[in-house]
């Protein structure tokens, strides 16, 4: 019952841009992504958070999974860490530059850094 209550409360909230800058935190969150994220939210991965790119392809892009959330990865951080991108048509991922990141952050009424 608590999960349903939490999810219904989140549905009524303004969209949030979740900014994740560490790889370790994401694994904890992904197990219950419907609890933490609303479908109108987005996730921006920066710094070491971009290490989550490969595992997230499976978590958020599975055609069987109905829950979708837009994910953004900062290109310069990926390049610095030697992470290459893989294009998948079902992916809700986008790799962005710094100027796009600024526009993204400003487009959300709420931001939360994990």
Model regions low in confidence, pLDDT < 50 over at least 5 residues: 1-5
Gap between N and C termini: 26 Å
What is the H-and-E element order? HEHHEHEHEHE
| Secondary-structure content class | alpha/beta
Instruction: Give the % helix.
Output: 40-55%
Mean pLDDT: 78
- What is the strand content? 15-25%
Physical arrangement of strands within the biggest beta sheet: 4-3-2-1-5
Q: What is the C-alpha radius of gyration, as a whole number of Å? A: 14 Å
Multimerization state: single chain
Number of strands: 5
Largest sheet: 5 strands, parallel
Walkthrough of the structure:
The longest helix is centred in the N-terminal third of the chain and has 11 residues, at 2-12. The protein has helices spanning 2-12, 23-30, 33-36, 53-61, 75-80, 98-107; strands at 16-20, 42-45, 70-74, 93-96, 110-113. It is 42% helix and 19% strand. The chain has six helices and five strands, in the order H-E-H-H-E-H-E-H-E-H-E. The protein is α/β, with parallel strands linked by helices and 114 residues long.
């Amino acid at each position: 019952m608590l999960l349903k209550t939490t999810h219904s409360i989140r549905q009524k909230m303004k969209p949030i841009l979740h900014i994740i800058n560490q790889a370790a935190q994401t694994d904890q969150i992904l197990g219950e992504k419907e609890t933490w994220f609303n479908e109108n939210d987005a996730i921006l991965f920066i710094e070491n958070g971009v290490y989550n790119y490969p595992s997230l392809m499976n978590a958020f892009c599975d055609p069987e999974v109905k829950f979708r959330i837009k994910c953004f990865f900062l290109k310069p951080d990926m390049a610095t860490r030697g992470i290459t991108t893989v294009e998948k048509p079902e992916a809700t991922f986008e790799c962005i530059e710094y100027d796009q990141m600024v526009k993204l952050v400003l487009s959300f009424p709420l931001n939360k850094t994990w």
